[in-house]
Amino acid sequence: MKSLLVSSSYFPPHKGGISHLMAEVAKNLRPERVCCLTGVPQKKTGTENNNLFRVYTRPCNGNGYTKALRLSLTIIEILIRERPQIIQLATVGEGRLVPWLKQWMKIPYVVYAHGNEILLAIEKGPKSTELITLKKADRILAVSEFTAGLVRRAGVDPGRIEIVHPGCDSERFRPTEPTCQFRKKLMGPRHKDRIILTIGNLVSRKGQDMVIRALPRVLKSVSDVTYLIIGDGPYRSQLERLARDMKVEDRVVFAGQVGQEDIPEVYSLCNVFAMPSRDQAESCDVEGFGLVFLEANASGKPVIAGRSGGIPDAVSDGVSGFLVNPTDIDDIANAMVKLLLNRDLAERLGSQGRARVMRDFTWEGVANRIQGILEGVLQS
């Protein structure tokens, strides 16, 4: 059985959690079982065999109608050439004409559901192409129980919804000691401090602002701590101003983007990984799952996460870290102090978190589950 994975906007070299998920799904399904259609901003067309799966690259520029038409024609071309038995859509926006292709060419399809895009589809209304694509799908693969709830809210039959959590590479992310050179490079004069870490886009939802607001309270109990922020985005200037207003600018390091090859060593620097994300439903901005929590746990680090969106699926409260009220400064500060002052507790949660990742969140397990779902669709 071969499937076509359509991920025109979410596939490397595009960055982000969805791109990473789609790349890992393609890599871990057997090479003969998947081919991919992805997009690049430039006007470039090509086909690549990367020894794992065949990748068709098409330009993804143009307006909505032109882009949708080009994508649909390319899907038809690949269906004729590769003869896949089923289509996988990375999001509901990846194949506007796929419901029509399903009817015309008698080919079933499944859709991955993440969070924000489902809220946007609901907001657009029942006649939106996104909701039509969602409702006509043979299966919806939701990344969390929260996201599955959004899909049910959109009017999809619960019997067609499957929860498929993302995985984590526990070989790439593992407990290691950072080099002194790397530590000094990122932390500068604060390289000897205990470190609270956040990795993520600098947007208001991620909760870096709440960690900064909690920092003065943390410093009253733990004097040698610095907050390391990895990532960039439109919220950076506001966060820098907030750090100055809170008089902790010397205890917050804005490191910007770092190379993907350095991310495992970045995790190794920290004592605690904290990202108290919060829902911002009014702007259709939620955390569908939270892959960074798995990466931190796999690195042997305890995590502090906001009790919001799909995060409770990624973080087991009291086992791999703590779930906190993402709008309560005291709750966030208390959790950080508890882990910074109790080394045994921090190490236990980090160790339990890694064991949980290795047991429940392997990419091989994710691929096997997806393969089972695809085969089930074809047999039904």
Structure characterization notes:
- By secondary structure, the chain is α/β, with parallel strands linked by helices.
- It folds into two domains: 183 residues, Glycogen Phosphorylase B (Rossmann fold, 3-Layer(aba) Sandwich); 181 residues, Glycogen Phosphorylase B (Rossmann fold), CATH 3.40.50.2000.
- Helix content is 43%, strand content 18%.
- It is built from 15 helices and 14 strands.
- It has an eight-stranded mixed sheet with strand order 3-4-2-1-5-6-7-8, with helices on both faces.
- α1 packs across α15 and α8 crosses α13.
- The longest helix is centred in the N-terminal third of the chain and has 19 residues.
- It is elongated.
- About 1% of the residues have low confidence.
Task: Write a concise synopsis of the structure shown.
This protein is of the alpha/beta class and about 375 residues long. It is about 45% helix and about 20% strand.
SSE map:
Blueprint: E1 3-7, H1 17-28, E2 34-40, E3 46-49, E4 54-59, H2 64-82, E5 86-89, H3 98-105, E6 109-113, H4 116-124, H5 129-136, E7 139-142, H6 145-153, E8 161-163, H7 180-187, E9 194-199, H8 208-221, E10 225-230, H9 236-245, E11 252-256, H10 263-269, E12 272-275, H11 291-298, E13 303-306, H12 311-314, E14 321-324, H13 329-341, H14 343-360, H15 363-379
Parallel strand pairs: 1-2, 1-5, 2-4, 5-6, 6-7, 7-8, 9-10, 9-12, 10-11, 12-13, 13-14
Antiparallel strand pairs: 3-4
Helix pairs in contact: 1-15, 8-13, 11-14
Give the beta-strand count.
Answer: 14
Radius of gyration: 22 Å
The rough form would be described as: elongated
CATH first level of the largest domain: which class?
Alpha Beta
Strand arrangement, major sheet? 3-4-2-1-5-6-7-8
**Main beta-sheet strand count, sense and barrel state:** 8 strands, mixed
Low-confidence stretches: 42-46
What's the number of helices? 15
Oligomeric state of the chains?
single chain
* Average pLDDT over all residues: 90
Percent helix range: 40-55%
Reported by name, the CATH topology of the largest domain is Rossmann fold
Whole-Å distance between the termini?
Answer: 15 Å
Number of domains: 2
Beta-strand proportion: 15-25%
Q: What is the H/E string?
A: EHEEEHEHEHHEHEHEHEHEHEHEHEHHH
CATH superfamily of the largest domain: Glycogen Phosphorylase B
